Structure formats: structure tokens, C-alpha cells
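Before going further, it is useful to explain how the protein records used in this thesis are read. An example of such a record is reproduced below.

***
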Amino acid sequence: MKDSSAYAKLSKKYGDVFTVYFGPRRVVVLNGYAAIHEALVKNAENFSSRPLGQAFFSADGKTLGIADESYGPKWKEHRKFAMMSLRDFGVGKKSLEGKILEEARALGDEICKTNGRPFCISQMMQNAVSNVICSIVFGSRYEYDDMVFKSLLKAIQRVFGRKMVEFLAEQLPPLKVLPGVRKNYQDLMQSQAKIMDHIKERIREHEDTFDPNDIRDFIDAFLLESNKRQTDENNTFTEQELATIVYQLFLAGTDTTATTLRWALLYMILHPDIQEKVQQEIDSVLGPNQEPAMAHRSQMPYTEATLTEVSRHATVAPHTIQHATSNDTTFRGYNIPKGTVVEVILWSVHHDPNLWPEPDKFDPNRFIDDAGKYVKREGVIPFSLGRRVCLGEQLARMELFLIFTSLLQRFTFKLPEGAPKPSEKGVPGPLHQPVPFMLIAEPRE
């Protein structure tokens, strides 16, 4: 990763905590597990806010939802509500396992249609993962060929794939009118508006059919909470807030998980011996016909180790959404004023040679002990740490295990004959994506 590796070089010279300036803007950079854990966990009260005037996960730049909201009572209330509602709609429960497995089956059926021809799995994977979010927030899924769904996913991809100059334009509004920036920025705004329009349309449908005795999904749960607070003049459970939170669930919950699964399949293609070992474990625990369940995870240490190594090696989110200090604080001898931007570099932890010998080597055995059991290691933090840990961590872990296991139970993935080996070095950006690659799926007997 371009800026992550640049920060890594700076940390060798200046240590794990240093300051960089972007014009007048001061940014404190945290590298390495010890510094990140000390700030986000031990000093959580001081390092859990968001930079003022920055709203990367807000479509209107004003309504901040959960992702962009400053650390305080409103954020705590909305995050607690979202966590409870996600649990109610099956996160960590068998009811959601069924929905994820339904998508895994649909994805497998779509792969079958390729009939052994080379194909790119990116779009199919995004369809499957997005549909899991749809079932939680909208209460329904989309068929893969639905034009509305295709348009929605294209807009999500555009927003997540925003260019650095568009990030800068958010910070420095005069940039928005420059000829080279204006058209791209307008295109980005249109994509954001398209997602929000779709979400608001679904919210209106829910309002028309709302029954307080039959709460179908996340939108219904939010509407119920909003109705309870109608007489409260400080009610923050508004329609715009709901639309923004759903927008954030889509953005945070679609591309990251779909990209991690694409990395997982790329590593299986590049390391057929590891793929074979995972499949042997799947066969011994599940056989050919029994569907995977989260209860099987503890019986499948090598599969678990492989997915953990995917998360470490790929590091799909090389750094977290920017943090900010909630108070004036002293950290490792530095005086840091309230409101200072804090950049948390997860890449530095996952690729630290002191934690991981040969960090650029893909090796699931890092997480297997001499008895063949899975060993959890604290240096793997793809969802970050502390109060701002990813809201959808449990959901993502369920999707990764169930979809990956389902696919390897049904197919062996290979490179097309004669195709050059894709690189394990990804494409830099807000998300660390694998280089586009083609693969072949051979149905297993």
C-alpha cells in the first residue's frame, strides 16, 4: 500500500508515533500493535472521536450517522441501538446463517453457469454480500439480474472507489470547480444521491406498511424507536439519520467483505496445496452434502487459520477511518490537542516482521499449534480495536466463513490454462484490492 508503506518507512526513522502536516492540518500517525492498542483501548476516552468537518461516509456532508459522528452521547446511543438491532436480526444467530447460506447457494449456482470457462468473480461476489445487507436492512434480497440492484451496486462501487483528489476536494472546496476535478466530483455526488434515493424509497415503503407488532428488519426497528421518541424534542432518530446509517451499513458492509473473499480465492489459486488442505478438512467435517454452520468453525482449525491469514496478509482496510482526539491528551510524551486528526495504520501491524516472520509470505500455519489446533493471535486486527471497532465485525466473520467454506465444498478454483500468475501485491486505494484476475471453477465430485 502506497501511503501505508510510506508511513512504515517514516516509522523506522521517527518511531511508532509521529506527526505529519498536510498544509496547516496536523495528523498524528500511529503504527504498530503496541501504540495502536495503547491509544484505542487503554486511552479510548481520548482517541475515539472523528475529525470535525470531515464526513466521508455521509451523503449530504451534514448527517453523520454512526461512522462519522463525533464521540459523545448521540454516537453512543445510535451505536448501541444499531448493535442491538443487528443482533435482533440474526447477527450471531442461526436465522442469519440461513440468509448467508441462501446467498452462498445463489453464488454457487451463478458460478455453475460459467461451465468451466474463465470468469471474473468480482461482480458476483459483490451481489452475494450486498444481498446479505439487503436482507437485514430491507427485509428482502434482489435477484442478481435485477436492474435496480445492478444500478445500486455500481453506485456503491463508485463511492468506495473515490480518487484521492475527490477526498481532497471534500477538505478544500475550491478544488471542486477545477476542470480536472469538477466532472469526477459531480459523478461521485450523483452516485451518492442514487444510493440515498433508493434507500429513502425503501424507507417510505416501510412507513406505508409499518406494523409495530411485526418488526421485519432494521428499518422497521428504527421507525419503532423513532415513534417512541416522537414527543422528545431532542429526538435524533430522524428519517435522514436512518437513511445515513443504512447508507453506511451498505458502504462498510459490502466492498470490504466482498474484497476479502476475492483475496481468499486468489490465494487458493496461487497456493493449490493450501486449497487442497482446506477442502480435505471440509470433507472430513461436512462431507459433500451437509451445509456449513458457524458451529462447525471450531472443528475446522485449518480453514479458520486460512481465513485469518487472508485477513492479515491482504489487510483490505490498510488504515481505519480517521480518528480524532476527544480531549487534550498526553500520549507517549507528546501533548496532543483536542480535535487532532489521528491516522491508525493497520497495515503496520499485519506486516510487522517482529510479529510475523516473513510477513509477505502467505502461511496459514502461523495460526496452528503443534497439536493442530487454531491459535488466536492478538496481532490480527482487520476490524480495528477499541470503541470504534467495526460495527459489522461479527456479520463479516459469519459471511467469510460460510461463503468461503460453501464455495470450496462445491468447487476447486484454478488459473485459466496458460494465464500468467496474478500478483499477490494489490491495488492501492482506500481499500486494498487484488489486481483483477480470471479464474476457473471446477465442480467437485
Observations:
- The mean pLDDT is 90.
